[in-house]
Structure formats: C-alpha cells, structure tokens
Amino acid sequence: MALEFFFGAPFIRFENMPVNKPTRTGHWLFITTFLIALVVDLGSKYLVESRLEMFEEYEIWEGVFRLRLITNSGMMWGMAETVPAFVWVAIRGSVLLGLVWMYASLEHKGRMAQLAFGLVCAGALGNIYDNIFQNPNALFEGEVRDFLQFYWFEFPTFNVADSCICVGAPLLLLVLWGHDRTVRANHTLSAKNL
Questions:
Q1: Is residue 123 in some structural domain?
Q2: What is the strand order of the sheet 57-61 is part of?
Q3: Per the structure, how many domains does the chain have?
C-alpha cells in the first residue's frame, strides 16, 4: 500500500496501526516539512502581495478558483476579527510552544507525527509572522494576508498557513490517538510480563 511508504504502517487497518512507529530519520521529516511549508507560505504571500493590489483578483480557474488579496486581523478565514493582533500573537505563540513541547514529549516520533507537527507548527508561525511584521507602522499590529479563494461555493479566503493547519490538525489528532493506544498497549504488555 502506498501510504505504508509514507507513514511506516498499514494506514487503513487501525488495529495494526503503530502510528508513531520510530524511524531512523530522527527529526528530519519534521524539520523538512516545517521549513518547506513555512517558506511556501511566506513566499506565496510575498509573491501575491507584490503582484496584486488589495482586493484585486486574478482568475486561475474561471468560476471556481482565483487569487484575491485581502488581509484580516482574526484567525483562520477571518473569524474573530475584532480581537487585536497582539492577542493573536500571544494565543498562536502559546499554541506553538505547546505543540513543540508536545512533540518533544512524544515517546515515538514516527513519520506521521513529524509530518503533522511540521505542518501545524509552520502554519502557526506563518500567521504569527504576519501578525508581528505586516503593519509597517507598528510591530504586533499586523494583519494576516489571505489570497486563495474558491468562490463557486462561497468558501472563505485563506492562505497556505491555513491549509497547513487544516491538513496537519486532523493528522495530529490521529497521531495522538494512535500514540495513546500504543502507550497503553505497551504498559499493558509490561504489566503482564511482571
């Protein structure tokens, strides 16, 4: 199965799924995923911002998908925009520190764990960067740059960082669920062997 190659275990059969199977790669996949996702996020924001004016649209797939540069001070998809940017920096920063602590405390850091944590951490840091540096007049008062828009079904405008979080968060839940099962199974085996 192709997913076995990426995740190191049968993906569909949960009863045999050591989600956090240790790898010989160390933290390589986490670091690579994190850096690539962060560079793609910040690079795409810079590229779109340098080519489009605010609210300007560029059709990619007519009637379905376009680039449309907007900013928002809220969280993903412009929710909670009345909260000041410095509060979002504190919240996102706390979440990012919590994720790093959680990653460091995992007993087994398999490929899926590294991928999930890399995506979510990159997404959080990409949006933190915008909140800190995107206002030329004051630090910690910037707005997040969004530009990807599926408009044939009224989907909110988003960016690569939001996508990383939306893909990484469910993977992270799966990793943590699998990690908990693995730890409990190991403790049960250890107790039986006593």
A1: yes
A2: 57-61, 65-72, 144-150
A3: 1
